[in-house]
Amino acid sequence: MTALMLGLARLLAYIGGAVLTALVILTTVSVTGRGLNTLAHSAALKNSFPDFSQWLLDRGVAPINGDFELVEMGVAFAIFAFLPLCQIYGGHATVDIFTSGLPKSVNRLLKAFWEVVFAGVLILITQRLYVGFDSKFSNNEITYILQIPVWWGYLASLIAAVGASLVGIYCAVARLQEVVTGKVLLEEAEGVDH
User: Fold this and answer.
1) Which of 65, 77, 100, 171 is 20 to 30 A from 47 via CA?
2) What stretch of H or E contains 85?
């Protein structure tokens, strides 16, 4: 079961990484277009190099319309897509100043407790995303500039959140088993020592 959950977590992370890379490229092109468009409209360039200024404008150099709408949807998906991998490796930030001196059994119990809490939170977020998706789908709400259905972003995030919830539930069950058996079932990521 660990291999299945790890595979799901990695798949979502790869897709999230691809989406995030595309968003970085989109943002870079849009910001570059905005900068060149501003430069082409500047009095300094129009007075010094009017032909070049007009050439830039004729090429349609400008920001990408609706870039922020795509970034908003894509980043929401990417966040949920990365959560499962972080969860299965125990890579969330922790502060263990007080717990580092406790016995291993107590730390196992604390980890299990927080895994159960986190799984519950993921399930709640997933349920609320479904409500939001259903609302946006029912209302046929569209984005202002690109006129694309808002529910697309909700659906993408909902799919990734379902994956995060499944992995969160698995991690909670595994941590509870660790409390009962005393065996380590999920390896944790190496943290940074300060």
Assistant:
1) 65
2) helix 67-88
